[in-house]
Amino acid sequence: MPRSSQHSIDEREMPPQLAVQLLELLEEQGVSRTHVLAGTGIRPLLLEREDTFVPYRQMVNLVRRALLLSNTPTLGLLSGSRENVSSWGMLGYTIMSCSTYHEAFFTGLKFYKAASGMLALSAYEEGDRLCLRMEAPSGLEDILPFSVEEMAGGVVTVLGDIIGERFQPLELQTTYADPRYARLYRKVLRCPTRFNQSQNALWIARPDNTPLPHANPVSARMCRRLVEEMLDKHSPEENLVREVRRVLMRTPGQIPDMETVAAELGVNSRQLRRQLNTFDTSFRAEVDDVRKQLALGYLRDSSMNLEQIATLLGYTEVTNFRRAFKQWTGQPPTYFRSG
């Protein structure tokens, strides 16, 4: 059974390393960053912030734009071959600190979303080989060669640097036809490629327990914790709930209904309900939580009376507000006003 992550890749946000690398590659070709980013939805200044994550759909826009403006069709291979431990961010240092090749590989597989590849990864073992499958969301066929080249090239380059000779790429399989620069695949990936196959996959020698030269259990635990915190912060659940709450809080006194919020997020109400249910929450629960947080702020930081606060929160009767507030907090509103 392939091992992979639970959430759809096109829901996530991505670290900015790939975006920055593409901008650098295009700059070397004489194309300005501003020109590359035009129409992608990505603001240049955001990429300079250490806490920036880029929505997956915006990264798709950037890749398409870069391919359009680049003077080389081998942009994916070039990008993958340029990657190193630091370009994988905290994930790179986590892998490098692992004790063995086996631990390093499967740590990377578990936390691959902390890097900035475009594809979803899963793996299964077959005898003395391991298959690293690479899957893209539907509708991205135009950037599939780039995405496979960048992902496979990055894996071969970075794991080769960290693990050394024990990392053996055996074969790349792709679902697309061989491009006119197919001969460069072997140079970058150090293995043969078979095109027009049923899957996009990199076959490697099965990871063993070879000790790694930079193993440091303390650093590995620390880096792993930071990676977990980063992924939790930018998980699809956090993104969806954050966006729902942003819309709910945008117009005080006019809490929008589900249809309005769904339309704002580009889905219908049924889809929004289903997505929230996937994360064990509901639109009603998010509305109540937003109302509770707003109510606490109004009670503590304003001089508005209860009738005014109730109206701002969308209640026509102050008694309904009092009842709801008691359910949320276990205390009446006056408790927080007096406290």
TrEMBL record:
User: Does the keyword Transcription regulation feature in the UniProt annotation?
Assistant: yes
The superkingdom of the source organism is Bacteria
- Supply the Pfam families for this chain: Arabinose_bd (PF12625), HTH_18 (PF12833)
Q: Which UniProt keywords apply?
A: DNA-binding, Transcription, Transcription regulation
Against SUPFAM superfamilies, the record matches this protein to: Homeodomain-like (SSF46689)
Instruction: Please provide one cellular component term from the Gene Ontology annotations of this protein.
Output: cytosol
Q: Which GO terms describe its molecular function?
A: DNA-binding transcription factor activity; transcription cis-regulatory region binding
Q: In what residue span(s) does the HTH araC/xylS-type domain sit? A: 238-339
Could you tell me what this protein is called?
HTH araC/xylS-type domain-containing protein
Organism the protein comes from:
Kineobactrum sediminis
